[in-house]
TrEMBL record:
Xref: HAMAP family: Malate_dehydrog_2
One Gene Ontology MF term: L-malate dehydrogenase (NAD+) activity
Major enzyme class: oxidoreductase
Span of domain Lactate/malate dehydrogenase C-terminal: 161-324
Keywords carried by this UniProt record: NAD, Oxidoreductase, Tricarboxylic acid cycle
Known catalytic reactions: (S)-malate + NAD(+) = oxaloacetate + NADH + H(+)
Species this chain originates from: Zoogloea oleivorans
UniProt name for this protein: Malate dehydrogenase
InterPro entries noted in UniProt: L-lactate/malate_DH, Lactate/malate_DH_C, Lactate/malate_DH_N, Lactate_DH/Glyco_Ohase_4_C, Malate_DH_type2, NAD(P)-bd_dom_sf
Active site: 191
Primary role: Catalyzes the reversible oxidation of malate to oxaloacetate.
Binding positions (substrate): 93, 99, 132, 166
Biological-process GO terms, alphabetical: malate metabolic process; tricarboxylic acid cycle
Amino acid sequence: MAKAPVRVAITGAAGQIGYSLLFRIASGEMLGKDQPVILQLLDLPQAQKAVKGVMMELEDCAFPLLAGMVATDDPNVAFKDAQVCLLVGARPRGPGMERKDLLTENAKIFTVQGAAIGQYADPDVKVLVVGNPCNTNAYIAKEIAIKFGRVQAKNFTGMLRLDHNRALSQLASKSSRDVSSLKKLVVWGNHSPTMYADYREVTSNGDNVKNLINDEAWNRDVFLPTVGKRGAAIIEARGLSSAASAANAAIDHIRDWALGSNGEWVTMGIPSDGSYGIPEGIIYGFPVTTENGEYKIVQGLEIDEFSRERMTHTLNELLEERDGVKDLLG
Ligand SMILES: NC(=O)c1ccc[n+]([C@@H]2O[C@H](COP(=O)([O-])OP(=O)(O)OC[C@H]3O[C@@H](n4cnc5c(N)ncnc54)[C@H](O)[C@@H]3O)[C@@H](O)[C@H]2O)c1
Ligand SMILES: O=C(O)C[C@H](O)C(=O)O
């Protein structure tokens, strides 16, 4: 018997990430090739015409799994009964800006959307925040949503998967190993240049990749800055922020969360439970494994002095961002 459709809400549906994301979701790349979906598309009133155009193109693909579409400028409609919410809609940064410079402008979006999710989404909803600064926006949405008592903090996540994928690619190239052979990467912390891409545990066909590369200066002076500043490098090259790779990471994140990571580690920005000394509630990149629609933090990793210093640096930035939005949280 055919599965019941899953309701997927996507904000910023008329934007550039939206345009890379929607067609892949409708083709089954996110929730499975046997899983019908209903797309609930939110964008601003002035973008509704463009959303309609995207919907026309979705229709023209005749996707067998596309069981319905809704376009709206009302978050309460967009998030109604949603089982997956991709919060993409927000202003992107331009050249010379840091992601946290967007906080004042974008934060309010996530108070409104957090309230709508808290009241109207499915109680088991999986929320991924992509709009920047995504960790703190996810924190805002979570804090507001849980006040309504229907959804839990664990339902809210931020996107570190693009950083994870970027780091994998850099490591594959440096070690001359296939990207698919690399296991056990972690990107700790904030989706910002302070993030700590940690490959101390990474293996490739049983070999430790850190030992294979054996170049601490490369780690510090090339790898970490390249991964941390990749978003800015793309803005510089394209004149626009990353879109297809961001959409790809969003699909990877939700697919693994919903369908399981088969024991592999993936990085998700999740509300801390206090693990590794990260204060509870902060949305922080952790290594997780996923099974049956739940994620679990990989425990017991050794944190050496260099790692602790990096993890604290990115945490401090998140604490500052949190302090900057406390007035919005009432
Ligand atoms: N976390 C990540 O790894 C990552 C990667 C790439 C981009 N981003 C972020 O994703 C966001 C979107 O990027 P983009 O390139 O698609 O931008 P874009 O400007 O092309 O599209 C944004 C869309 O959001 C809509 N929007 C704005 N406010 C909205 C609201 N309140 N409700 C619903 N829709 C709203 C706009 O009308 C527009 O259609 C940016 O904040 C960008 O920085 C994050
Ligand atoms: O860097 C940006 O502003 C966009 C995005 O967060 C990215 O990492 O590419």
